[in-house]
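WARN no homologs supplied; continuing
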Amino acid sequence: MEDHESQRKLRILCLHGFRTSSEILKQLVLRWPEPVLQKLNFVFLDGQFLAQGRSDVEGIFDPPYYEWFQANEDFTEYTNFEECLVYIEDYMLKNGPFDGLLGFSQGAVLAAALLGLQAQGVALGKVNKIKFLIVISGAKFGGRKYGMPKLAANPYSKQMDCPSLHFIGT
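OK structure emitted
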């Protein structure tokens, strides 16, 4: 007989994209094949901040729309990033434990950064170690063109021992 841990569905905290919502991400993820959905327990969280501008999904999906944090037009200055980290950790403490993170677009950038920040002891220090990451249409902070929040200055500075699955394109 298998132990309870091996029978438990993996719990995944899902972080939506920029100026969308948990409900929109839920509608998209729940289109996945049934055998996959049966093995996973998805928990969808809305960003802390109402969208401060127009959403690209207006007319396709209903509001409200949310953001995890804000950036200026060329993504060189960020606001509310540290507040976002506290918000997510508080949610994980109250509603966890979570085995992994799933992020779409801005949520994917955030999820990947959270993994690195947790490994460095900068964020998510009060919750269990994230065991895996699912990135959908993601990117990373930084690069030649973009800046990054001060706290996320080095989320990828060391190699992480964590499996990840990346969806790119259709």
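The longest helix spans residues 81-95.
OK
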